[in-house]
Specification:
The complex is a heterodimer of chains A (about 230) and B (about 350).
Chain A (H helix, E strand, L loop, with lengths): L1 E10 L2 E11 L4 E5 L6 H9 L6 E6 L2 E2 L5 H7 L1 E4 L11 H6 L7 H14 L2 H4 L10 H14 L4 E5 L7 H16 L3 E6 L2 H7 L2 E6 L2 E7 H7 L1 H5 L1
Parallel strand pairs in A: 3-8, 3-9, 6-7, 7-8
Antiparallel strand pairs in A: 1-2, 1-4, 4-5, 9-10
Chain B lengths: L20 H12 L3 H4 L3 H24 L8 H18 L5 H23 L4 H21 L1 H4 L5 E2 L5 E2 L2 E2 L3 H25 L1 H16 L4 H27 L1 E2 L8 H12 L5 H17 L6 H15 L3 H16 L21
Antiparallel strand pairs in B: 1-4, 2-3
Helix pairs in contact in B: 1-8, 3-8, 3-10, 3-11, 3-12, 4-5, 4-6, 4-10, 5-10, 8-10, 11-12, 11-14, 12-13, 12-14
The chains are: A alpha/beta (about 230), B mainly alpha (about 350).
Family (chain A): Belongs to the ABC transporter superfamily.
Protein name (chain A): ABC transporter ATP-binding protein
Keywords (chain A): Amino-acid transport, ATP-binding, Nucleotide-binding, Transport
């Protein structure tokens, strides 16, 4: 589904990502863990096209997308939930969620909305409310639901658990697992290693822009490597 | 899977009505200008109404671009293109039909804006401001230098009166009716356009990077808006040239863009009514302050400072806030509902 080869990202003279190789298959959840500044968000942003890659290839669904702008990548079927609860504050919750479904027909959008309401019942309760008036955790969920609403083949989640109460973390985890069951690939970054390792199959530990350790999540859990790095 | 980068609509939960309250109120007020010549023959009032409508229509070009957080100084440039298109058509080709001229005054600047937009709409913030200002300077230079077409520093003088179904629209009242028609067209186009793409423009204004990552090709919306803003500015240029019966470069001075931006900000950039309110307030104030001679610029500046300090949302924002307070203070009003963020949903701790 997603294949990254020898990816490099730089900001001016600072190297944020160096020579990353990574694959995410259909129905697979891949986790990037690492401390602040490890390069996780830069890697995600390079996949969606928000930062330019200095070198390397990004192939999605057999197509080289490295030269595409981010809106074209989204239309290819990549859903993206940024770090930091970025919602459109003056729009309603439902408008925010469906803004991720631009490429779908209205009937499909309605079906997607119903599915998301099953996963996150609070969306129905708050659907007409301005998203800017929600609590931080609720805004995070809206951002994640928005990334899911377009029916993506690949979902990019940047720190989805950041600042969330355990009840919301459980809801997001359940939703991610359902997406995995539907064959959707998920690439997520997270500093909260324990809940993230529970839903991922493959983990990569990043430090200083490089992958230092990769493996099945059981192996990473077993070695307590995440804690070592965090 | 569709991968076309065409203009797409954000799928709103509930599509808004064709026009909202502010839009209807604005169109009602602009439409009222048609009645002014019937109500009075006072040349002062006719002239003042004319000036307000032209200023407000020009300010729409700023308003449209501000919907996407882009401050444009290009309004005088597109006004000039619209105005000179009309002057050339009437003087050199003998076209006087107001509808044909109106279409030309809209289409020509809108078409010119397409390649220009392609060049400059990838810029943001201060760079966009700077380039649009330079664009206006370049157009000004071309007006002076392209003498065979524009008449150079003499301008194009002696334009015939425009006609509607063969009837000449010559006197003050008829000139105002022409301006009112052009303003009404400009306001209607702007109201429908900004309302139709309301959510898309809001998404781009608040966070264009995020909007793009959701699949909105932001630069296409910006290009479309730039083109429509240019067309509406062209209508204002037509009205100005028609009032003066002359197309002259000084009518489209680059610094006049500051006035159009001021009308929009002082009136309130959050609603289309703001452009009309700002233009009405400041054009009238300019007229009143002119009686004070050398104090005039100082008084004008003071008014702008006071309005921007007291009313960050402009005159319309202030009025809306005051109306909201009155509603809440009314004994019949229901008890205020706590903000949603303070009412956690089931199990929410964050």
């Amino acid at each position: 589904m997603l294949s990254i080869r020898d990816l490099h990202v730089s900001y001016g003279g600072t190297r944020a990502v160096e020579g990353i190789d990574l694959d995410v298959g259909a129905g697979e959840t891949v986790l990037l863990i690492g401390a602040n500044g490890a390069g996780k968000s830069s890697l995600i942003n390079a996949v969606i096209g928000l930062v330019r890659t200095a070198r390397g290839r990004v192939t999605f669904d057999g197509r080289d997308i490295a030269g595409l702008p981010s809106d074209a990548r989204a239309r290819c079927g990549i859903g993206y939930s940024p770090e930091g609860r970025r919602v459109f504050p003056s729009m309603s919750v439902k408008d925010n969620v469906l803004s991720g479904a631009v490429r779908l027909a209205p009937r499909e959008q309605a079906r997607r909305w119903d599915g998301l309401v099953d996963s996150f019942p609070f969306l129905a309760e708050r659907q007409a409310q301005a998203a800017g008036e929600l609590s931080g955790g609720q805004q995070q969920l809206v951002a994640i639901a928005r990334a899911m609403s377009g029916g993506p083949k690949l979902l990019l989640l940047d720190e989805p658990f950041l600042g969330l109460a355990p009840v919301w973390i459980r809801q997001i985890s359940a939703a991610v697992q359902r997406m995995r069951d539907e064959g959707i690939a998920v690439l997520m970054t997270e500093q909260m290693a324990r809940p993230a390792l529970r839903i991922a199959q493959v983990g990569h530990v990043m430090r200083s822009g490089q992958i230092r350790r990769s493996g099945r999540t059981e192996e990473i859990k077993g070695a307590a490597l995440a804690e070592e790095y965090l | 899977m569709s991968n076309q980068a065409s203009i797409r609509r954000l799928p709103q939960a509930r599509r808004p009505a064709l026009l909202g309250g502010y839009e209807w109120a604005t169109l009602g007020l602009v439409g009222f200008a048609f009645a002014v010549p019937v109500l009075t023959r006072n040349p002062q009032i006719l002239s003042q109404t004319n000036l307000i409508l032209i200023a407000a229509t020009a300010a729409l070009g700023v308003y449209i671009m501000l919907r996407m957080d882009l401050m444009s100084f290009a309004v005088p440039a597109f006004m000039a293109i619209g105005g000179y298109t009309v002057a050339v058509l009437s003087l050199k080709l003998g076209v006087t039909d107001v509808i044909l001229l109106g279409v030309a005054a809209f289409v020509m600047p809108a078409l010119c804006a397409v390649p220009l937009g392609w060049l400059i709409l990838r810029l943001k913030g201060v760079y966009f401001v700077l380039v649009t200002f330079v664009l206006t300077e370049i157009v000004q230079l071309l007006l002076f230098e392209a003498t065979p077409l524009t008449g150079g520093s003499n301008g194009l003088v002696g334009m015939p009166a425009v006609t509607l179904f063969g009837i000449e629209l010559m006197d003050n009242s008829q000139v105002l009716l022409t301006t009112a028609g052009l303003a009404f067209a400009g306001f209607t186009i702007t109201a429908l356009f900004t309302r139709y793409f309301r959510y898309e423009f809001t998404a781009i204004e608040k966070n264009d990077v995020l909007a793009e990552s959701l699949g909105l090709a932001c630069w296409r919306y910006k290009a479309l808006a730039f083109s429509v803003a240019a067309g509406v500015s062209g209508l204002a240029g037509f009205a100005l040239v028609n009032m003066l019966l002359t197309a002259h470069p000084t009518s489209f001075a680059p610094m006049s863009s500051v006035s159009y931006i001021t009308y929009t900000i002082v009136g309130g950039k959050g609603a289309i009514l703001g452009t009309l309110a700002g233009a009405a307030l400041l054009v009238t104030a300019t007229d009143l302050f002119a009686l004070k001679g050398e104090l005039s610029p100082g008084l004008f500046g003071l008014l702008i400072i006071v309005v921007t300090l007291v009313a960050r949302g402009g005159v319309i924002g202030l009025a809306a806030k005051a109306a909201g307070r009155l509603r809440r203070a009314s004994p019949a009003a229901p008890a205020r509902v706590a903000p949603i963020a303070a009412v956690p949903a089931r199990g929410v701790k964050s």
